[in-house]
Structures are given as C-alpha cells and as structure tokens.
Amino acid sequence: MARTRLYRNGVLEAEDFPVEKISDHLEDDRAVVWLDLVDPTQADFDVISEECGLHHLAVEDALNFGQRPKLDRYRSHLFISAYGVRLDGREGRVVTDEIGVFVTAQTLITVRRGDGLDLDAVVARWDDNADLSRYGVAFLLHGLLDYLVDGHLAAVQELDQSLEDVEGLLFDADRPSVRAVQRRSFRLRRSLVVLRRVTLPMREVVNALMRPTLHVVGEPMLPYYQDVYDHVLRAAEWTESLRDLVTTILETNLTVQGNRMNLIMKQVTSWAAIIAVPTAVTGFYGQNVPYPGFGRPGGFITSTLVTVVLSIALYVTFKRKEWL
C-alpha cells in the first residue's frame, strides 16, 4: 500500500499519484512529496531508492523493524526511527507502532508495519496548519513528530491515572487482595518500562533535528520544533517519575501488609490473653484438693467474679492501647 501527496509552493497540488511519478515531480525545486508505505517489500524499496536515492543501510533498517528510536545521517538524507504509542484499555499495557522516516530535501517517506499508526490524524494536522506548508519537508516532519509525541504524553497521562487508582486501593477499607494490587502494579511498571524505551531516545532525535548543521529545520519552524522538544522532555521526565512512583507503591503495599499483620497479631494476642484468664481461674478451681469455698456456692460466685472482672479489665486495657 502506498499513499502520496504533492505540495508545490506550499499548496497541496495532488494526492495518491503513482510512485513512479515522484522523480518527475522532484525535478521542480519548489515541489515537496510525501510518500507513505505500509508493509513494503525489498522490490518496493528498489523502486523508491531509485526514485529518491536512499542509502542501502537506511533501507535495511526500514525493512528490519525493531529499531530503537534514533536519527541516522547519510550524505543525501536522514533516517529516523520512532514509535507511536497507545494504551490498551482492557489489559492496561502499552502498544507500540514503529515507523521509519526518510527525510530528504524534497521528500518525506514514512514506512509502517500494519495500520496501527493512524496517519490520517497526521494528515489532518497538516491540513489544519496549511499556512506552514510553505516550509516544505520541515513542516511535514513537524506534523508527524508532534503527533507521535502527543501520543506519548497521552499514554503517560493514562498510566498516571491508573497509578492514582492503585494508590487509592492501598488504604481502602474494602481493598482487593494483595495479589491483585501487586499484579496491577507490576503490569503498570512493565508498561512504563516499554514507554521509557520509546520516550527517552526521542530527546536526542528531536534535539539533533534542530541543529543547524543538518539543514532540516529553518528559523521559521524552529519554535515549533522547540515546542515538540519540550513535550518530549515532559513525557520522558513524567515517565521517570512514574517509574519511581510504582516502586514506592510496591514498597508501601508491603508496609501496609506488615502493619495489618502486626494489628492482627495484636488482636489475636489480646483475645488470647482475655481467654487465658477464665481458663486459669476455672483450671485452678478444678483441682481435686480442698480450697477456700470448696463445695459451697460462695466459691462458685467468687471464681465467676474473678473471671469477669479480670476479663473486663484486660479488654479495657487493650482497647485503650488500640490493640482491639
């Protein structure tokens, strides 16, 4: 599957034209072309490489998905590997969609696997900011990166809300089982690890694009890239803080369980002490030897009073100490 767009002098001129026509359009220095490929083959890249002069190492990286976010510089173009992120609401896990991007002076080529990444949203951003289209490839690349980074921020925000829900469970009187809390915490931690692998390298990617030596971002587009860079930093720092928060939640969960266990032990010990009083009294009066009040109602009344008074005294004492 291939999708194309042609801008000339900052105006959208054509869409979905054949790939073979790209080189004809690029003969005009005022033309800028976007090409999107989904699940391309080596034969597809042979055509594109001939049309746009792509380096074989960059083509190899684009075909072999699983690259870390990076920016590679070649003589005639740049290659960027990045990821879109979305959160699976049912399982609470982060799903990543890799995209490879070739950047030349007049072309932006995106390479995807499957339709997980919604580039219609990117196209909508380009159309909403058509006044910037006169800045060519820098404009197209900004719309794509802005969409990807906004997805990172949205995923971090959802994970943050999920962590707040887990925090609320820690001190809830009707809290779920310990395993349930630990399972949710470890699932969120795994999602944050995946998100961290995506967001942290993006700092270097966006920062490198703004360097004057690459001749990609001109002065008019620089503030827009700076805004994307600020969002990248925010997503990365937010992810790091959430990872620390997950660790704190796990430690707090263990602490709460320890405190609850201590409280239970105090309660059990207190009731055992209360029960030990009548046991001791009745055991003493159950001896097969004469004792004061033996065989008389006074002895029974005395033993009963001793049992009741000592049991009440212990109960009041433990209640004041908040052991019961």
UniProtKB/TrEMBL annotation:
It is a multi-pass membrane protein. It comes from the Bacteria. One of its GO terms (cellular component) is plasma membrane. GO terms for molecular function: cobalt ion binding; cobalt ion transmembrane transporter activity; magnesium ion binding; magnesium ion transmembrane transporter activity. The keyword Cell membrane applies. Its main location: membrane. Keywords: Cell membrane, Membrane, Transmembrane, Transmembrane helix, Transport. The chain crosses the membrane at residues 268-286, 298-318. SUPFAM superfamilies: CorA soluble domain-like, Magnesium transport protein CorA, transmembrane region. It is found in: Cell membrane. PANTHER family: CORA FAMILY METAL ION TRANSPORTER (EUROFUNG). Belongs to the CorA metal ion transporter (MIT) (TC 1.A.35) family. This is Magnesium transporter CorA. It comes from Planosporangium mesophilum.
